[in-house]
Amino acid sequence: MSAGTEDVVGRRGGGDGDVVIAASGLRVGYRKLREKVELVVLEDIDLEIRRGEFIAIVGPSGCGKTTFINVVAGLVEPWAGTMEIDGRPVDGPGPDRAMVFQDYALMPWRTVEANVAFGLEFQRNGPPAAEAKQRVDRYIEMVGLKGFEASFPHELSGGMKQRVGIARALVCEPEILLADEPFGAVDAMTREGMQAELERIIATTGQTVVMITHSIDEAITLADRIVVISHRPGRIREVLDVDIERPRADQDVKADPEYVRLREHIWGMLKAEAFGASDLQEVEA
Amino acid sequence: MTAPVDSPVKTVEKRPSSPERAFSYGPMAYLRRYGAVGLVAVNLTVFFILWELFANAEIVNPLFLPAPSAMFAEMFQELGPEGLLRVNIPISARTFAVGMGAAALIGIPVGLLMGASKVVDSLISPYVWAMASLPRVALMPLLILILGFTQTARLTLVFLSAVFPIVINCMAGVKTVDTSLVRAGQVFGANKAQLYRRVIFPFTLPFIIAGLQQGMTRGLVGLVIAEIFGGNNGLGYLTKRAAETFNSPLLYAVLLILVIFSLSFVQIIKWIEIKVAPWRSYGR
Prior knowledge:
Helix content of chain A: 25-40%
Shape of chain B: flat
Oligomer: heterodimer
C-alpha cells in the first residue's frame, strides 16, 4: 500500500521487492461438528511473498491450497501462527486483496458491467461514481469484453465469464490478486489463451499474484515461484524458482530445457502425493 | 473508455431491453413469434364453433353442456347493471386480493427469515410443514365455526391457502443460495447486511416469484372452496347457486371467468419474472 507499483514490471521474475504476504508457522484446520473431529489442513506454513511476485501453488486435491488462499483473503482464521500483509495481521477481507474464482461466481442477475462494478461497491473509500464507471470501462476493455457490457453471464462462454471475473478483481486495483484455479473450468484451448491474457494483463497492472492451480504447465508458464504443497496436513514440500524469460505464455516455452526440467521435477514430487489423496477432497470444500 | 462519463455508476444495473430476451421465455414466446394473437383468435373461434355445433346437436343433455352462445348471452346479461357477475366478481376479487396480499406480506419475510436464521427455522418450521401438508380447505368448517359465514372467514382461508407455499419457496431460496456468490461478496468486502441485500436477496427473487405463483394458484382454490361452503356471495357461491337452479349457462360462464382469472395471474407472474429475473430462462 505504501510503496508505488510503477517499477514492479521491471522487478518481475527477480522477485526482489519487499515482502507483502508473510505467513509464519501457519496452522489451519476445520472442525467437523457432525463427526466431532478436527482436521488440520495446513501445518507449519512459512512463506514470504514479495511485491510484484507471481506465485503458483500446486499440490494434490485436498492439500489445503484453497484454505491457504482463504486465509490470505481473510475468510478463514488460522489456528496458530500468523498471516501478515504489509506487516499487519490479516483481519478479514480488504480492498487490498481481490479474488478470481474457479466457478466465476458472477451474479447472474447482473450485466457484465454491473458484475465488474460489484468489485468496487463495498469499498469504504472507493472511487466516486464517475471515476468508478471509468475504471469499470477500462478493465472491461482490458480483458477484451468491450461491446459485451450489457450482456448477462448466461449469454457468455466460460472463458468470457472468467474475463469478467478477472476484470471484477482488477477493478479494485488490489495490491494482491488471489486466483483459485481460475482456469479450472474452461476448456484446454481457451485455457492457454487465457493464460497468455493473464500474463499480459499482470505485466501491465503489476499485482502480486497468488494462484492455485492443478496444472503444472500453468504454474510454470505463469509463476515466478512455484510452491509445492504436500497432502494432508498440507506442508510446503518445496519452493521452486522459475527462471524462464517472459513472456512465456504465447511462445514455445514448453520446449525450453528449464521448463522440461521443472515439469519433471514437480511431477515427480506430486505423483506420489496425487494417488491416494482423492478421499480427502471434501476437506477443501 | 475514452467516451465522456456523464452517468453515475448506479445506472449500470439497468438492463437494456433486447427483443431477443423478450421472446426467449415460455410457451407464449412461440406464439408471439408466429403471430400470437391471430393464432389464438383462430384457435378459440374454431373451438367455440365446434362446441356450438356439438351442443346444438344435443347429443349431450344441454343441462350438462350448454351451447357457448347461451353461455356468452348469460355472461353478458349478468355482467350488465345489477347482474350477478357484476355484483359478485368484485366481491371475490376483494377477498382474493386481501387474502393474497396478507399472505405475501407475511409469507415473504417469514420465509426469508427462516432461510437466514437457523433459530427461527427450527422454531417454526414444524408448524409451517404441518400446515403446508394439511389440505387447507379442511380448515373451512373450523373457520366458519370461529368466524361465521363472513368474508373474514373466506379471506382467512385464501390467506392460509397461499401463505405456506410462499413461505416454503422463500425459505428454499435463501437456503440454496450459491455459496460461491456469498464467498465472492465477502471477498469484495460486503458486510452482512450488504450480503443479504446485494447477493442473497437477488438470488432469492426467482424463488419468491415462484412462491407467489404457487400461492396464487392455491389461494384461488381456497377462495372458491370458501365461497362454496362459507358464503352467500362471490364466484364460488355463484357456481353452487347456478347448479342448484339448473342454470348451466351461468355455471359455465363463472367457470370460464375463473379460467381467465387464473391464466391472467400466471401470465402476469411470468411477465414479472422476465422483468426481474431474466437469467432464469437459462439453465434451470
